[in-house]
Each structure stands twice: as C-alpha cells, then as structure tokens.
Amino acid sequence: MIQTLDIVKFLEMADTTPVVDVRTPLEFEHASIPGAFNLPIFSNEERVIVGTTYKQKGREEAILLGFDLTGPKWSAFIKEALKIAPNKKILVHCWRGGMRSGAMAWALNLYGFEVYLLEGGYKRYRNWVLAQLKKDYPLIVLGGMTGSGKTKTLLELKKLNQQVIDLEDLAQHQGSSYGSMGKLIQPTQEYFENLFASQLQKTDGTRPIWVEDESLSIGRCFLPNPFFKQMRESTLLKLEVPFQKRVDFLVEEYGKLDKEFLIERTIKIGKRLGPEQTRDAIRAIESDQMEVFIKLVLVYYDKTYSNGQGKRSQESVHSLDCKSTDGIENSMLLFNYIQSIMSVE
Fold it and tell me: Which of 25, 97, 146, 288 is 20 to 30 A from residue 116's alpha carbon, by CA?
C-alpha cells in the first residue's frame, strides 16, 4: 500500500514511524527532518548527471538513465529499509515528492512495505518549518549576566514539568565568543531551524515556554527574526547572581579548556576588549590565572549584556536576587515567583 500524506499527518506519524529521506547524501547532510534516515536513490554525482540529462534530453531519457544507475541498487535499498523499519511500515520523501520518492515507494510497496509519501516532499516540510517559526508563543525569557548558570537552571525547570527550549543545545554553542568550547560542531542554519521547529511543535501553546535570553546569533546560528522579536517583547526574569559567584562558575566551566583555543577566541574579541585588557587576559591564560582571565573578559560581557537590556521595556524585566548559581535552588525561586504572579492575575 502507498498513501500520500499532507505535512501535518506525515509529522504525526513520524513520532512512531521511521522516516526515510531518499535525497543525496549532500542534500541530507545540509539539512533534514530531525530523526530521518538517509537512503539515497542517487549519489551526489549521479544526481547531477540525471539532472543534466533531464534538461538537455528530456524527462524520459532522464528516467531511463535513472533506472540504469539504480538497477543494481534495489536489493540493497530494500535490505537497508528492513533494518530501518523491520515492521515494514515506513515514511518516505524526496525534495519535491517526485520521481525519487515515487520510485522508492514503488519498490518498497512491491516487497510488502506499508509506504507513506510526503506530499510536496522536503520543500513542503521547509515551508511548514518557516510557518512554525513565525507563530506567536507564550514565552518567558530567562536572563542574567554571563556566568549566572542560566542553562543549568533551565534544565532544572524542565524537571519541574516546565516547558523549556534549550536554544544553545539546538545551536550546539553556548553563545559567547568561547561558546564552541573548542569542540562543539554547529548545525547548518537550515537544520537549526528544523530542530527548532520540531521542538516548538511539541509544546502546549496554553502554557508558558521558557527560553534563555540570547542575542540574535548563537555562534553561527541565527534566531528567526519573528521569534527573536517575541523574545525581546516577552517577560524577562533576570537572575541577579553575585559577581564572585559568577566568576567561580565560569572558572569551573571554561578554566579547563585548551589554552590555545582560549587565546585565539580572546584575540577574536580584542577590538572590543581593548588592547590592554586583551594583553592581560592572554597573559593570565598563559600563566593559569583563570580567575584573572575571567574577570577581565567579564567586564566586556557585562557591558554588552547591560546594553542589550537597555533595549527592552523595563516594565517587562523582573529581577530576582540569587545567592549562587545553583540550578536547583534558582529554578525553585523562579518557579515560585511565576506561581505567585499567576495567582495574582
């Protein structure tokens, strides 16, 4: 059986049924539906050849060439599909829901698979993604200067059954110049958006969604403008953590990273730090004076954060005094504060 589904039904089934993306490895590597498996009909080079044939000689010649190229592969396709979906129920898509996914669906159906095709293919999925990123959401933004332990606090809020989207986890970057931690590899912008939309889809629009206060960019990933605008206009709960507690937190977080990485990233922000601060920060790194290094760069980051806060309506900013960066303690403080606000309203 082969059945074509619209994007909503396709994604509903994707929660419990494997998705197979038959586009080329290069297309898949750039971005895909989160959780999908790549079972490419053509290699990167083969797709170019077939596309050229289509343009120069027409559709029928391209189809014949496609069968010539894939003829020996069909047994392997079916065997791989069985590994992915041993119960023989599978979702399939290509770029536009055309010949590639149709051919794979035909072969799998012939073998006895229950096949569901995505109407409009990955292109339709991308339209759906962009639509999710433009919707309005009931956001609560968690703020606080660098080193306030915001991410750990968000994770603890999630344990309290709060809806949390960890933007830095999606972007694989912790936001600052040092945010790659010398090892994190960021997704493409397109895949970041796909991951983001997938998370938004799972939220309940009647309950608050917690996100961390971010700038427009998280490393090389950019927040969609409509969502970023919502963040700027939403209620912000700001953790006010003592300076030394933030320093201690950052020394623990960044102090063990590779020195060459820290120096390289410090040089990168040298113009904003200033020549003397940059020189002193590098010397501190080289001599293992991590607390000195952190205090020097915090001057820049605290100033940057304060400038960003100045662009918000101050009526939307609520400051909460915190004794430490402890995520459990601060999550309870935030949870109780929100409960008190909701009960008053």
Answer: 25
